Amino acid sequence: MMLEIILFALTVFTAIVVAKRSPTLKRDINAARMLVTMKMMYAWYTWRGFNIPVLWEKTVEKYPGKTALIEAHTGRTFMFSEIDEVSNKTAWVLKKFDVKPGSVVAIMMPNSMEYVASWLGAGA
User: Where is the AMP-dependent synthetase/ligase domain positioned along the sequence (predicted)?
Assistant: First the structure.
């Protein structure tokens, strides 16, 4: 992973040297910086054994009463603890139906808080 990041950085540096007067140079450098940062964060989180359900639980523990989502079309707001409660219910229902890690689960719902909670519950 680190070799891939270094090679990518060298490629970007070469492109900058070649295209000194590019009108999109600032944007391209910013995009490259963001990509390298994301790849490094991914490597760090993977190395530490973090995944989305683990990160979600840590966030809920830290900010249970804070607003997590605002539905644009309705204006409803949802706290982290509310979404966590629905996602836990979803996880228990899936467990009751013998859905195991690695199983394929399809979620067909409109974009809403319930969709996010169901997705988190399916990932747990």
Answer: 57-122
SS3 call for 77: strand
Distance, in Å, from the CA atom of 124 to the CA atom of 72, rounded to the nearest integer, reads 26
Question: In whole angstroms, what is the distance from residue 55 CA to residue 104 CA?
Answer: 22
One domain, residues 79 and 94: yes
Q: Is the pLDDT of residue 40 over 70?
A: yes
Q: Which amino acid appears at position 79 of this protein?
A: M
CATH number for the domain spanning 97: value is 3.40.50.980
6 backbone dihedrals φ, ψ, rounded to 5°? -65, -45
Confidence at residue 80, expressed as pLDDT on a 0 to 100 scale: 92
- Please tell me the pTM assigned to this model: 0.61
Query: What string of H, E and C letters represents the secondary structure of 5-64?
Result: HHHHHHHHHHHHHHCCCCCCHHHHHHHHHHHHHHHHHHHHHHHHCCCHHHHHHHHHHHCC
Which structural domain range is residue 74 located in? 52-123
Give the chain's radius of gyration (CA, Å): 20
